[in-house]
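pasting for the record
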Amino acid sequence: MSEVSLPVADTAQQTVHHAAQVPIEVTLFFTFLLVAMIISLALEEKLHAKKSLIVGVYSIIALLCGAYAGFMPFGEITIPGGEHLPLPVYIPAIDWGVIAIILGSSIFVDVSSKSGIFTWVAIKLTKMSGGDPIKLLWYYSLMTVVFSAVLNNVTAMIIVGSLTGVSLKKLDKMDKLLGFLLIEGLLTNIGGLLTLISSVPNIIIGNAAGISFVDFFLKASPYVVVATIITIIVGAKIFSIKAFSTEEEKREGRFLVSSFDENDGIKSKSFFNFSAFMLIIFIATIATTSITPLLRDLGMGFVAISFAIIMLLRFKSEVDQFYRSIDWDLLAFFMALFIVINVMEHAQVLTLIGKGIAWIIGAEENALGTGALLISSAAFSSVTDNIPLAAMLAKILLAQGTVADSPLWWSVVFGANLGGNLTPIGSASTLVAVTIIHKYKLQLSFAGFVKKAFPFAMIHIGLATAYVLVILR
């Protein structure tokens, strides 16, 4: 992938230039600041503050303290070609390629969903199942994985989770709802591994390591397929989800789901067809960006923004409704986070943490170190946001000169995504699953979630560790 961003090498040179001027006590102070930010993010709900505001406050503190300590590289920066730009120090700190991918993809998906295409697929699968519980589980699970790869995890969980509740209520199988929703919640994080744009950690790591869309898919998809099948089989056994055993049950099931109409959400057939066509073209273009002339220089962010604008042409005079639906909190969070990470880089905090990572990995890459990095990444991601983890480790691995085909990158990718299956706060999609569970007045505490999800999480993380060590090395 040829994602264009402001020069990492130049930033690294500036960091080295200032390294000798940063006393250890200053580095330790900024380390404390980073830890405080991570703890604050973990306590987001208790603080009653959005993550963008939390990290925004820390970015202001970090910049002020960095300016006072005198290690920040103020002044003009040099971009490829030798041109000097008088930008504020916090502007080149932001990875605008990542911001563009998230912004463009979210608008594209939001506009596409207005066509009713995703609801149409969901209801079609429901009718194909004939109301059979085990077929429903397989269809909904596979749909969760695919939707999580194409949409974002939260949107996928909302669509599939909502339909699951309606379908099982109609089929009088509400006693199976907890099992269905829990399995679907766990699979959103499995599906989040499928493509480069499936989750934010993927985008950050892929952008840093230079992993192309196709290469990412080819390496991640075998794991996703196996993990999905195992999760469904184990889930069906644990939650006693079985197929209809009599012809009468099958007839009744088919009759009950036949009342669903997949065309209800389609207001314009032409827009529906256009959205389906554009979705295919979007995925194909993203997949081939790294080898397409012009696009490989402009990058995936340009492709995502371009497709978003093309889709918005359908609502020429009403585009403001989609601007209002953009997750500005997420984008502001990213920009503030990149600034904090950049200050930590100049304060030599990442170098300090990098020494710890190097100790875990070992002097040379080995199976023990690679596995330890994956497991520790998963543990960290289970209790706080996996995005700061991915951003921080990406910087550290880059600084250590980690090559693009190193399994260490994949340890971070798998760990950051799968850690969300250990606790209900480990990822936004599992939190949505728990919210839907509580909406139907089903009892599931924090400890209850951990107890039920733990066997699945151990399978997922154990399988990922073996996959990275045996297949991706």
